[in-house]
């Protein structure tokens, strides 16, 4: 059997010399299973990631990070129903959440109008429930108005509902209960310290200073032997 070297000599051929480059001076491109090579940035994965990064940016105030049609009325309605199933919400809070998901303002307003028409959204009932929640947390009228507006209730509605609750003595009862709890917690402390604790707690809860002064004079007095 003729050797490979003899075979090349007979045909006046020379083996090709392969020059090895310094691996530190050259970086091999990436290749796929078909032998094609490309720079990492130009690979399909790299291009897809770059596209995803761009798609997650805000364009003219609208998010474009989801493949769905954000102007689709049905999709927006389904998103609203899921949010309402999770927890009761005012129309203002629901609108904010839907806009945050990227739905267009006119689509969101249309959905909220329809849900209000079929009584799935009732800001009046929601505000009444929120006031009872605030009273249970021993909040005052000012604190309740702030809490309701934070939850997306229209400020005019929040003020009206809280005024009605105030006329029934709801917030006065809450203030007195707050005073009794503070008195129990501060029993044995210096009188001025106890009063400061009452004023501090009452201020955070948004109570009227007049009712706090009355409570301080009634519950926080010098102990007599």
From TrEMBL:
The UniProt record lists the keyword Transferase: no
This protein's UniProt keywords: Cytoplasm
GO BP annotation list: regulation of DNA repair
Residues of the RecX first three-helical domain: 76-115
Source domain of life: Bacteria
Cytoplasm listed as a keyword: yes
Every RecX second three-helical domain range: 122-159
Ranges of Basic and acidic residues composition bias in the record: 23-45, 57-70
Pfam families (alphabetical): RecX_HTH1, RecX_HTH2
Skewed-composition ranges (Basic residues): 46-56
Subcellular compartments: Cytoplasm
Region annotated Disordered, chain positions: 20-70
GO cellular component: cytoplasm
Family named by the database record: Belongs to the RecX family.
Protein name: Regulatory protein RecX
Gene: recX
